Amino acid sequence: MKPFNKWTKAFMALTLATSLAACGNQASSDAGQTQAPADKGAAPTELTIALDWYPNAVHSFLYAAEEQGYFKDENLKVTMQMPSDSNDPLKMAAAGKVDLAISYQPQLIQARAEGVPVVSVGALVRHPLNVIMTRQDSGIDTPQKLAGKNIGYPSLPLDESIVRQVVKHGGGDDSGLTFTDIGFDIVPALTAKKVDAVVGGYINHEQLILEKHGIPVNAFKPFEFGVPDYYELVLATSDETLGKKQKAVEGFLRAIGKGQDYVKNNKEKALDLLLAKQAADFPLEKDIETKSLDILIPLMDAGEKPFAYQTAESWQTLIDWMKKEKLITADIKAEEIMRDLVK
């Protein structure tokens, strides 16, 4: 996750732009056209989705849906594109440059609180992946022991609030905490002992890489220490796109639900497909992605509910916490930012 920008300014700038050079001009040409429900024999409805970052295990359901023909079954032609920055997808969706975007639940709340017309249509990863990590050889094995320490973070107010909440909930004093901006160099910062702890690293990526290179870590899960158990990744669109393409979006949700079922039942085939789709600039390590998928599958499982199901309660709980932490100032309701489209 990249640092939050001021969403209203960014949205206005992107709306006025004729193109987004950083991410190319691959958005669907019909993003501003009303679409009727697809009929058999009709031309496929085109949907463009911006990934949150480079292809990795969390996107396996998309490639499975494409490969197995589930998008085609819904009469959809889906184009996937990778952004140059993980802040871009949500801004692109808001401005109608793409139809759908994979983004983060706190990021949607931040944007909506600033008046950006984005809405979630599904929860993809149902629990946080972001954890606070310390080296096991540091002796910092409880949240209380973080008190007075130097925390490396990607300069996100959200991450600072998470650390302070975890420390206070664990009985520690957060007043002596210091925060060092390390960007997203999570692994190097902890490897070189530049900081005492890091936040912003994921249990299915940075933690796995650290442990692979002989640096076992303690991982404190924020939702075990007073931070809401929020959705890490969600599927977003704009109010306008949803109004024009709701039937197509509902078909997309059905297709990715089948895609996720395929991944669960065919992990090795799904991983082989993912590796075939990896970005040349971001090569994947098969052992890391294998372990990542094992971590992700249960965290993406909605139980008796369909894949991508989301609740207003989850949204409102996080909204209220972010308001309390002064991460947002506007009063917004869950119903403004989510739509229950999963059947």
Automatic annotation (TrEMBL):
InterPro entries: NMT1/THI5, SsuA/THI5. Residues 56-270 form the SsuA/THI5-like domain. It comes from the Bacteria. GO terms for biological process: thiamine biosynthetic process. Residues 1-21 form the signal peptide. It holds the Pfam family NMT1. Gene3D superfamilies: Periplasmic binding protein-like II. Keywords: Signal. This is ThiY protein. The gene is thiY.
